[in-house]
Structure formats: structure tokens, C-alpha cells
Design brief:
Elements lengths: L18 E2 L7 H15 L5 E4 L10 E6 L3 E12 L2 E11 L8 E7 L12 H14 L9 E3 L14 E5 L13 E7 L1 H10 L1 H12 L7 E2 L21 E13 L14 E6 L4 H10 L6 E6 L6 E4 L8 E4 L7 E4 L1 E6 L5 E5 L2 E6 L1 H13 L3 E3 L7 E6 L3 E3 L6 E3 L6 E2 L16 E8 L3 H7 L2 H19 L8 E10 L3 E9 L7 H9 L11 E9 L9
Helix pairs in contact: 1-2, 3-4, 5-6
């Protein structure tokens, strides 16, 4: 739990109560899911194609043919290490959706004491069968999408679990997936209503707060109580403005150095980050709004955040949940309210999101940036925070290997956590870590290497680079790019480049020194990433 700071009075404009929602799966799913579930309950579904000994690292307990020749499910029995204690789980992962353009799906169910590992429930298999059927017709679910069951019938695994929310992937020890995937969260019908009306991230963080697991508890606890109903949130500020579900965008507060974990304050800013896929929804919403009408953008989890804001009805002070060991340097918000036509500019915290005040002149600049896909920054008035709009870098031209890497969801540069206990520091203050860029999907890296091992490995490389380029404070400012590929079982290959280029002759010896560092074990394929260092402040090229 992040420490609370003094809460400012919530503010904003707009009284339009219309809701613009994007639904992940149509109502036709309900009938198909009921029929599929009935088959699996009767035992008509095929038995496991093969099985593995429980406890084998990363190996499934069973492989189930859901649709023979088209779709299989991996069933894992593993333990999730949670702050409140270990959580034994079955995790079901599809294998076959990617061929249809649909991300694979992972769904975890808590295993209660006394339940045999082999007694895993069959309900998730019915869900996978239905999702495959719709994917074959090019009806796909994305992050923020949902599936609903007929509430007049028993739910999935529990009578009242009538909703499935598709959230960003969470890499868990003891499971693996054949490619990019979504994490499916089981909800009651009212909980799904609340998520659709007040934001996916609000429901995710409610679960995360209950189980103290960032950003959300990925497992279905079939004994938990219901956590949210839309009528209980009737007094939320979001109920008073038009809302647009925009899960191709995210927002975060970036804290000023030395003020990590605080809400607002001098030097902080709120950043709204969008993918190009967000533009059609933004364009449609703007055409429906009056010139000075406020709109709330319901957002996805910011992928570079180390904490996320939480809110429950009646809450009067801001709070957040955070990654283990995080300082709250980048705090994700559930929404951004754009409130134009006022006499000041800037952002402030509001419930589990942000309210952004804009004068008419600034609103015109923001609207133009949203329409044209351009970045913009609005300086703050008084004690408000600055506000910025950025666009995800979807194509990364790698200066090290010359290749163009394309990621429709955007490339992320992960910053070193301020105050990390083991983070090396150049004693001369000449070399600093600028960021770490993953050159493949994060969930793929999470399946191939333990993230803590990767972090420790990077920290052992940092001093080598700092020794090679540190020392003299006077001289040219430049960046050092260290690209690494680790292949199974633990063979590292390093390529080092300098921008702007200088001292190229010194790079091969440095590459050999980096390769001499014992690499961690990887499995299932290579792990590729890039570490960026700034020497004497670095070049003007930002690590985006």
C-alpha cells in the first residue's frame, strides 16, 4: 500500500451521463458457452491427451484436447507466491488461438486444501471452446473485453460467476504459454457491470488490494465474497460524465525525483499514453461532445507503472497498490477526465484516476494532438500537475542490429527503480542507466527466464560499463547501447554500440567482458533485450 498524501478536492466538469462502451464478446457467446459447459460436465469432452508429473518445473499437469486438431489446453498445477501466503492453483492456458489471430488465454483457479491435483475443474475448457469458435469468425477479445453468461443459469465454476474480464497478461512461476496471452479474471455479474461502467482497472485493483497482489489477483478464489456492485458506486464522479472505454490507452503520474510514492506535488506530471489504435474511438467521441463537455477515458494498466491507484466508495484519501519493492515513481490511474473550458491548466488526482483541467486554448491544442496522433504537453497552473500526451512507439528501429521491431501495443523502456537496494551507482557520476528495452513480448521473456535472475544479471553488467566509460566528467556526451541475447541454457552474446559513434575500437574488449558475466538459465528459446546507458548526461535522444 502506498502511503497516502493530503487529498485535494475532486473537481471537473460535464453532466452528460451517456456511456460509450466497447464490449469484448457478443451476447451470442452465452448460449454457446452453456452448451459447451454442459458437454464438459457430462464428460463428453475428450480426456487428457497426456500428463506430466506434478511439480515438474514449468511442465503441465495435463494436456487436454479441447477441439481435436485445433485447440488444446495446458493445465498446470503450481503455487503462486503471494504476500498473504502461497496460493496453490490450477492454471489453464490455451494452445491454438494464435493461429486465428486471437491471443491465447490463461485462467487460474485457486485449489483448496484437500482437492487433488488431478481433480481440476472442466469449466474453463468450455470457455476456451467458445472463444475459439468466435475467433474462427474473426470475433476477437482484447484487453478490456469481456464475456457474459446468462444470469438466469448457474455461472462458471460458481453459481454467481457470470462474467469473464480479459486483462493484461501476468507471468506466473510454474506456467507457460505458447505465445502472447490474456489473463482471464472471473467476476460476478454485478462486478462485471461495475468494471464495464467504471473501468477495468478499478475492478482489477479491488482484487489486487484484497489479496495484496499487484496489479490484480489473477486467480479465481471460489470462496471469496463479491467485491463491487455498480449501484454502490453511484456517487463516483465517473457517474456524472460521459465515459469512453479506451483500453488501447493508459495514464500514470510520474513523480518528481525524491518524491516517489507521493500523490501530486511539485514536479509531478500526468502522462496519457495512447496507441494508434485509440484514434478511431477518440475521433468518434470528440465528434459527439459539445465544445466544453467533459469526458472520462476509462483506461488500461500502464505497462511501465510500478503502482496503481485504488478506490472504494466512501474513500476520502488517495491510495495505491504497488509492485514488491517499488517506490511509486510511476502510479497508474484508472481514468483521465478531460475537463475543458475552465480558467486554469493542470492535473490532479481524483478517486483512482486523474482530472485534467484545460483552458479553451489548451483544449484546442489537446484536441488537435488527439486527432493528429501528435504529442503535446500542458504546463500547470498553481499547484496542479503538468499534463502530457504521448503516443506508443509501435516500430522501433534498433540502432544496434539495424532491424525494425514492430509491436502494435508499443515498445516499452523500463526505468531502474529509484532507490533500488542493489542498483549499482557510478561513483564518479559519469555513467547512468537510461533504461532497459525488451526486444520481445514481456510475457515471452517471463516464460523463459526468472525475472529476478534477469534483474540480478543486469546489475552485474552495469559496473563493467561504468568502469569502461566513467572517470572524466569532462568530454562528449553520448549513449552506450548494450544488446544481449541469452540462448539456452545460459549462453550470452553481447553487442555494444555508442551513439554518437566514438571509440569503436574499445567495444570488442567490452563485449567480451560482458559475455564473461555468468548468464542466468533460460529455457524454451532466446531472451533478447537492450540496456541503454547515458554518459555525461547522454545524447538528446530520449529512451522512450
Amino acid at each position: 500500500m502506498m502511503r497516502p498524501a493530503a487529498r485535494r478536492r475532486a473537481g471537473g466538469r460535464g453532466v452528460n451521463q451517456s456511456i460509450v462502451l466497447r464490449v469484448g464478446v457478443s451476447l451470442l457467446v452465452l448460449v454457446a458457452l452453456i452448451l459447451a459447459a454442459a458437454r464438459w460436465r457430462r464428460g463428453d469432452g475428450p480426456p487428457p491427451a497426456s500428463s506430466a508429473a506434478a511439480g515438474t518445473r514449468g511442465e503441465p499437469l495435463a494436456l487436454v484436447d479441447v477441439i481435436p486438431g485445433k485447440l488444446r489446453a495446458r493445465v498446470f498445477s503450481h503455487v503462486i507466491d503471494a504476500p498473504a501466503g502461497p496460493v496453490p492453483c490450477w492454471t489453464f492456458v490455451t494452445d491454438g488461438l494464435l493461429a486465428l489471430g486471437q491471443k491465447e488465454i490463461a485462467l487460474s483457479v485457486k485449489r483448496e486444501p484437500g482437492e487433488a491435483e488431478s481433480a481440476y475443474p472442466r469449466g474453463p475448457l468450455a470457455l476456451f471452446e467458445v472463444v475459439h469458435g468466435y475467433a474462427a469468425r474473426k470475433v476477437l477479445v482484447q484487453e478490456g473485453g469481456s464475456s457474459q453468461l446468462d444470469r438466469a443459469r448457474p455461472g462458471l465454476l460458481r453459481d454467481d460467476l457470470h462474467g469473464v474480464l480479459y486483462t493484461p497478461s501476468q507471468s506466473l512461476a510454474g506456467m507457460s504459454a505458447p505465445g502472447p496471452y490474456l489473463t482471464a479474471i472471473l467476476l460476478t455479474g454485478p462486478e462485471l457491470d461495475a468494471a464495464q461502467q467504471f473501468g477495468m482497472l478499478r475492478m482489477m485493483t479491488r482484487l489486487g488490494e484484497k489479496y495484496r497482489f499487484y496489479p490484480t489477483a489473477p486467480w479465481a478464489d471460489l470462496r471469496r465474497a463479491e467485491l463491487a456492485r455498480p449501484e454502490a458506486m453511484a456517487d463516483s464522479f465517473l457517474g456524472r460524465v460521459a465515459r469512453l472505454a479506451l483500453y488501447t490507452a493508459s495514464a500514470r503520474q510520474e513523480s518528481a525525483p525524491g518524491r516517489e510514492g507521493s500523490f501530486g506535488g511539485p514536479g509531478a506530471r500526468v502522462v496519457l499514453r495512447l496507441r494508434s489504435a485509440a484514434r478511431p474511438g477518440i475521433d468518434e467521441a470528440l465528434t459527439k461532445l459539445d465544445a466544453d463537455e467533459a469526458v472520462a477515458l476509462l483506461l488500461n494498466l500502464d505497462p511501465e507503472a510500478d503502482a496503481a491507484m485504488t478506490w472504494t466508495p466512501g474513500q476520502t484519501s488517495p491510495s495505491a497498490i504497488a509492485k514488491p519493492g517499488a517506490k511509486g515513481a510511476r502510479i497508474a490511474g484508472n481514468f483521465v477526465v478531460l475537463a475543458p473550458g475552465v480558467d486554469r491548466d493542470g492535473a490532479q488526482g481524483l478517486e483512482d484516476g486523474f482530472s485534467v483541467f484545460l483552458t479553451r486554448a489548451s483544449w484546442q491544442k489537446v484536441r488537435a494532438a488527439l486527432a493528429q496522433g501528435q504529442p503535446v504537453e500542458v504546463p500547470p497552473s498553481g499547484d496542479l500537475m503538468a499534463f502530457a500526451i504521448t503516443w506508443a512507439e509501435e516500430t522501433y528501429q534498433n540502432p544496434v542490429d539495424g532491424k525494425a521491431y514492430v509491436a502494435p501495443e508499443g515498445w516499452h523502456t523500463y526505468q531502474p527503480s529509484p532507490g533500488a537496494s542493489a542498483a549499482p551507482v557510478d561513483p564518479g557520476g559519469v555513467v547512468a542507466v537510461k533504461g532497459i528495452r525488451l526486444l520481445q513480448p514481456e510475457e515471452e521473456i517471463g516464460q523463459r527466464i526468472e525475472t529476478t535472475s534477469l534483474a540480478d544479471y543486469i546489475k552485474r553488467i552495469d559496473p563493467i560499463v561504468m568502469e569502461a566509460f566513467g572517470g572524466d566528467r569532462q568530454g562528449t556526451a553520448f549513449d552506450v547501447l548494450v544488446q544481449l541475447e541469452i540462448t539456452p541454457p545460459h549462453q550470452a552474446h553481447a553487442t555494444v554500440r555508442v551513439q554518437p559513434g566514438s571509440g569503436e575500437a574499445t567495444l570488442p574488449p567490452l563485449e567480451r567482458r560482458v559475455e564473461a558475466v555468468q548468464a542466468p538459465e533460460v529455457r524454451g528459446g532466446p531472451v533478447r533485450f537492450l540496456i541503454e546507458y547515458a554518459v555525461r548526461g547522454g545524447s538528446k535522444r530520449p529512451a522512450r
